[in-house]
Amino acid sequence: MDSRPTSLLPSPATLDLDKGKSHCGNSVVVFDPSVLQKQPKIPEAFIWPRCERPHQPEELEVPVVDLKGFLEGDAASTSRTAAAIRGACASHGFFQVMNHKVDAAALHDALRVAEEFFELPLSTKLRARRRPGSTWGYVGAHADRFASMLPWKETLSFAYDYSGNRDGVVDYITSKLGEEFQPMGYHARYLTALLIVSTESCMTTCDRVETCMQEGAPKELSLSIMELLGISLGMGRDYYRDFFEDGSSIMRCNNYPPCQEPDLTLGTGPHSDPTALTILHQDQVAGLQVFAEGKWWSVSPIAGALVINIGDTFMALTNGRYKSCLHRAVVNRDRRRRSLAFFVCPQADKVVRPAKELLVGRDGGVPRKYPDFTWAELLEFTQSHYRTDASTLQNFTHRTGMNKDASQMEVS
Ligand SMILES: C=C1C[C@]23C[C@H]1CC[C@H]2[C@]1(C)CCC[C@@](C)(C(=O)O)[C@H]1[C@@H]3C(=O)O
Ligand SMILES: O=C(O)CCC(=O)C(=O)O
Ligand SMILES: [Fe+2]
């Protein structure tokens, strides 16, 4: 007889939250990785349809771009880098960057800090759980929002304010977990700063935190990539840098525990990121897969490199010239996997609209593919109305009635 748990309740690995219901009407359940990772049969809710199930694909050859020359102002190196990025973004939107000035020790520390959080007892983590509609906080398997095809992961997310004020992170952690967790709050603040800051290895950790906070350096890597994207599109280096300068981004730590039936589930389901750009640090355990040329490919970690991918919002800004590509994360039997995703987003109310230079083709005007929208609108759609997948932008367009003749819309 099949002893598979049919639901998440009342397994010891799960817990009723506030005896409540989620906003979609399901019992609110959470999963405890310390129990679930040892269960020989995973609960039904984590099983994905056969057509979505993972396999071991070949490696996708994505360009590994060395940022050294560009960051030092070398013109020849900058145009080679921009050309490599142009090729990747026009086909699948994925590339990796080396010599990005985020030091390896800082990334290692960031993963360790995230791990410290994920190893806390479930009841403690739940004190920091994300509230419906918010991007902040701890989430286990998205069981508060969805009832089936649950992802085999837990996440901790923070809004990342480009103004350089990260005290909100400390306040959030201490208000949810208690004053005794203030050091972890500072670690989390440190973590949000580390991923995108230029640091010098001789500085102590404290010095680095202070530098991040005082000089507002944390946004530099994402804005450097925006410069390269601008150059690669012939828009000049400042165009997207300026657009994203006051951005409102999201930092997310993902923890994918081991799973005894890894072939039946997914760590993160197939989706395109709704955001503009994602900077991803994976630990040394492979798991990221990209759908290109009609099949799934692996994008394995390269020591020292960060994975960059274009999201739906940047695809819309380029009227579809640069692609936001379907990807997912798989899990495995023996090793937990961790990743840090920095989702770069425009300021919430800024209108996302392609520049007129990108609406000119060989034979004249090119019709608009997407309507004007704001990041606040698209974010609200993904959090309240639609589970992010391959067609988020398309469905967002239809749902909001913005599919009126987009080609007639005003251009900037
Ligand atoms: C705005 C966002 C929604 C998600 C987090 C950020 C950027 C990526 C989105 C997500 C990771 C895409 C896969 C599905 C999702 C539900 C997840 O598995 O976490 C998405 C995030 C979310 O809706 O919380
Ligand atoms: O963990 C990964 O490798 C990818 C996660 C991802 O795609 C996401 O969080 O959007
Ligand atoms: Fe993603």
From TrEMBL:
<dbReference type="GO" id="GO:0009685">
    <property type="term" value="P:gibberellin metabolic process"/>
</dbReference>
<keyword id="KW-0560">Oxidoreductase</keyword>
<comment type="similarity">
    <text>Belongs to the iron/ascorbate-dependent oxidoreductase family.</text>
</comment>
<protein>
    <recommendedName>
        <fullName>Fe2OG dioxygenase domain-containing protein</fullName>
    </recommendedName>
</protein>
<dbReference type="InterPro" id="IPR050231">
    <property type="entry name" value="Iron_ascorbate_oxido_reductase"/>
</dbReference>
<keyword id="KW-0479">Metal-binding</keyword>
<dbReference type="InterPro" id="IPR027443">
    <property type="entry name" value="IPNS-like_sf"/>
</dbReference>
<feature type="domain" description="Fe2OG dioxygenase">
    <location>
        <begin position="247"/>
        <end position="346"/>
    </location>
</feature>
<dbReference type="InterPro" id="IPR026992">
    <property type="entry name" value="DIOX_N"/>
</dbReference>
<dbReference type="InterPro" id="IPR005123">
    <property type="entry name" value="Oxoglu/Fe-dep_dioxygenase_dom"/>
</dbReference>
<dbReference type="InterPro" id="IPR044861">
    <property type="entry name" value="IPNS-like_FE2OG_OXY"/>
</dbReference>
<dbReference type="GO" id="GO:0046872">
    <property type="term" value="F:metal ion binding"/>
</dbReference>
<keyword id="KW-0408">Iron</keyword>
<dbReference type="Pfam" id="PF14226">
    <property type="entry name" value="DIOX_N"/>
</dbReference>
<dbReference type="GO" id="GO:0016491">
    <property type="term" value="F:oxidoreductase activity"/>
</dbReference>
<dbReference type="Pfam" id="PF03171">
    <property type="entry name" value="2OG-FeII_Oxy"/>
</dbReference>
